Amino acid sequence: MMKPNLLLISVDQMRGDCLSILNHPVVDTPNLDQLARVGVLFRSAYSATPSCIPARAAMLTGMSQRSHGRIGYQDQVPWDYEHTLPSVLAASGYHTQCVGKMHVYPARSLCGFHNVVMHDGYLHHNRIRTANTAAEFYDSCDDYLPWLRERAGADCDLLDLGLDCNASTVARPWHLPEALHPTNWVVTQSIDFLRRRDPRKPFFLSMSFVRPHPPFDPPQAFLDMYADADFPSPAVGTWAQADDPDRCGLNPITNKGIVPRHRLKRAQAAYYALITHIDHQIGRFLQAMLEHDVLRNTVILFTSDHGEMLGDHHFFRKALPYEGSAKVPFILADPGGSLRLNRNTTNDQVVEIRDIMPTLLDAAGAAIPETVDGQSLLPLARGERVDWRNAIHGEHECKDMSNHYMTDGVLKYIWFSQSGREQLFDLSQDPQELINLADDERYRTSLENWRERLAAQLADREEGYSDGKRLNVGRPAQTLLKQALGASL
Predict the structure, then answer these.
(1) Helices 356-364 and 52-61, axial angle in degrees (round to 10)
(2) Active site residues
(3) Residue 331 has pLDDT above 60, yes or no
(4) Which of the four pLDDT bands, split at 50, 70 and 90, describes residue 137?
(5) What is the DSSP secondary-structure string of 278-328?
(6) Residue ranges of the Sulfatase N-terminal domain (predicted)?
(7) Model pTM?
């Protein structure tokens, strides 16, 4: 019998709570809900480094940030990893294909895939005209734009809507036919792969969407679905800054500030609409898989690289340790039942993006390289008794808000390395992180324990954050670990 096909569906900047099966008060995700019903929904899934590049390094290599070396957002650093998910699967007899976002360097690096049909969205370093001509950008850094220009006119560009690629507070509807939207394009190209794949081999397809990452530009039909919705107010903790003296919220690409309520409401509507749009296009692809008779022999994993604060605690975008930014949706589905999962169940063990590679390799019966730090989720998903990790460590360089966090899915400890500020949240009682318990005497012992655990975690790091017992405040934050990346720098 042929090995199972593998489908990794990844989206960009989708919050972990934005699934209707999790009783979100507004967002509707019927197809993702159905995947959860034929699989397992992991409710405590995190991105250890919640921005695009480092999260995708974990996704492709199965490594922790200590091993893959990316602890902040920095473009144009070569990807020279010995083992990647597609390279191991290709060596195991799989036909491997990526459609959509890669966000690697060089942009055309295959990273082990047999082929990549790429759209990374708007990347500033690729668009600087002093370094790249327009022709070089279209020809070497993107496959969607030439496709779009052939159908909608030679002058079409990613900037036509006037929306910035990081503007999490500004929205407007897509201006062209829905079939030309980047979300539809990913599915159109993925369906074409089903036609062109080698039928003698199992396939691994990475279907990687740029949305719901900004620009917030859903097709009008999906925006209309949320026109009259009663949007929940963002979570604002008692610890959050109460005013906006620098008027940061009036900057459409800031990661903090208080924005006008009407603008925030439009942004929420567009963000949720983009998620539902993706959900419907996933439904389109599942139907195509039925028609190609591959659905029942395909294992499907759905996740995001990180979340979106969307106004929580007056923050936007990502790179922060809070649930809106660091927590991601995570579904392992098995429509055909070959993996013997406890289908239509949830699991609350703390999992991370680095667990994707070992999970899919385990499903394929392929050997897991020693470089992989993650763990296969199949035993958890089958309900087996497993000696699982007791916490994860996350971090991100973020200037004066550079941060580290640790969580076991119940408690979360946060340390801001530049100021020494600490936060402690009881997620079991306070999932929106409204109450900081760091100054609560009842939690002093717990706070000290978490601080010691983080100090041990950072003991031999090159930044000098810790001597193994105590945390050192004010050490310069880095975006990369030289010890891990070595010759790549």
Answers:
(1) 30
(2) 52, 103
(3) yes
(4) low
(5) HHHHHHHHHHHHHHTT-GGGEEEEEEES----TTGGGB-SSSSSSHHHHB-
(6) 4-366
(7) 0.97
